[in-house]
Predict the 3D structure of the following.
Amino acid sequence: MSDEPLGPFTWVDDADGTDDPATGDVATTPAPPVAGHAVVALEGISKTYATGAAEVHALRDVSLRIDRGEYVAVIGPSGSGKSTLMNILGCLDVATSGRYELDGVDVEDLSETDLAAVRNTRIGFVFQQFNLLSTLSAWRNVELPLVYAGVPRAERRERAHAALDRVGLAGRVDHRPSELSGGQQQRVAIARALVTDPALILADEPTGNLDSRSSEDVMALLDELHASGRTIVLITHDLEVAAAAERSVTVRDGVVLTAHDQQGEPVGAGA
Ligand SMILES: Nc1ncnc2c1ncn2[C@@H]1O[C@H](COP(=O)(O)OP(=O)(O)O)[C@@H](O)[C@H]1O
Ligand SMILES: [Mg+2]
């Protein structure tokens, strides 16, 4: 599976000139592309929320492997643990127990700072609400992850423009979110997710706020990204949307029930 870069992207291994893992340089260095390399490896992951007297076991002993270039949908009814799983996959929260290796990095022992660097450079997030800054133009929104990663200004501009070109918005780089349609705003968000050349694109109900035409548009773009070698995890309650993925994983009562090919029969999913 090829992992073609989506633009003239160069990794900055040494953003602050120190080449020192203590300053986060290690987090900006991508793991070498190895065939069959696991981008996500969860092993016996559990997450327990303590709420007053009661404990909620939101995830129970979840093991899941997602290889480079896979397109996986995570489905399940409300309250099943999808958001909890997404938060852990996205390094927005840490598990109560178990192991999580993201793109070869063991994340459960990282400090908050290192976790933030991993989140910023190895994961591209796409949210239901787009989460764009309304006062910034499209390209300024897209360059933000590169600002946090310490990429020099000229390179940021070039990479942000290339990413917007990639999602078909070359003619809208100076538009603010309010001057764009919902579908265009989500494409800006996808450009922002791509600009760091992340190991994983994590999309949480990316079509949840879009009309059917814009939804198709965004799903077609995700298909294209998958075809170009991107690794995508799509969280959705919409089975029609989930059908776009190669494989789906069902979460129910905190347990990953089944992993099956789109062509295969769901085993015990019932959803
Ligand atoms: N911060 C929290 N504190 C306590 N319980 C929570 C918290 N977040 C989620 N839960 C509980 O964990 C379970 C899984 O929730 P969640 O991961 O949000 O499911 P989903 O996204 O599939 O709807 C639910 O029972 C929910 O009430
Ligand atoms: Mg949820």
The CA atoms of residues 83 and 235 lie 8 Å apart. Residues 82-83 surround magnesium ion (ligand 2) (CB under 6 Å). The beta strands are 38-51, 54-67, 71-75, 97-102, 105-106, 123-126, 200-204, 232-235, 247-252, 255-261.
